[in-house]
UniProtKB/TrEMBL annotation:
GO cellular component: cytoplasm
Annotated keywords: Acyltransferase, Transferase
PROSITE patterns: GNAT
One Pfam family in the UniProt entry: Acetyltransf_1
Domain of life per record: Bacteria
N-acetyltransferase domain residues: 1-140
Listed name of the protein: N-acetyltransferase
Cited PANTHER family: ACYL-COA N-ACYLTRANSFERASE, GCN5-RELATED N-ACETYLTRANSFERASE 2, CHLOROPLASTIC
CDD domains according to UniProt: NAT_SF
An example molecular function term from Gene Ontology annotations: N-acetyltransferase activity
Source organism per UniProt: Polaromonas eurypsychrophila
InterPro entries in the cross-refs: Acyl_CoA_acyltransferase, GNAT_dom, NSI-like
């Protein structure tokens, strides 16, 4: 069945999106928080099949200097089909013209993003609300 693509927020079921993130698995994200972050993102895309949300992504961007691709999520039933690549490629195309496009990924997925021309940054740093948890999950280290 062909996918239906949109960037519109009006028809998004935020509870369904929250369930997609849990299934992906990318953690527990409340419907209310997802509505806030997608609404505040410059670019977004949603892929559906037979009316069911199967993949999403978004970009925080300032319009000139920096675009930050984040929250790429694909249902397990659609992982390995090229959908994630399509979402990232679409968001990169929307972000062209920015001086840099940055992507935040789950540890272990670096190889996937390397195939899409992303390279590891040596200077990226972060403060997480749960530093110990972020360290345990491999997002940050002591150095």
């Amino acid at each position: 069945m062909p996918l239906t693509w949109t960037d519109q927020l009006a028809d998004i079921d935020w509870s369904e999106l929250s369930a997609l993130y849990a299934a992906a698995p990318l953690g527990n994200k409340s419907p209310e928080n997802l509505q806030t972050v997608f609404t505040n993102s410059m670019f977004r895309c949603f892929a559906s099949e037979n009316g069911k949300l199967v993949g999403v992504g978004r970009v925080l961007a300032d319009g000139v200097d920096c675009a930050y691709i984040c929250d790429i999520a694909v249902l397990p039933s659609h992982q390995g089909t090229g959908l994630g690549k399509e979402i990232v490629s679409h968001l990169v195309d929307l972000s062209r013209g920015h001086r840099k496009i940055i992507l935040y990924a789950v540890p272990g997925k670096e190889g996937f993003y390397r195939k899409l021309a992303f390279r590891r940054m040596t200077t990226a740093m972060a403060i997480f609300d749960d530093q110990a948890g972020a360290m345990a999950r491999g997002y940050i280290n002591e150095t």
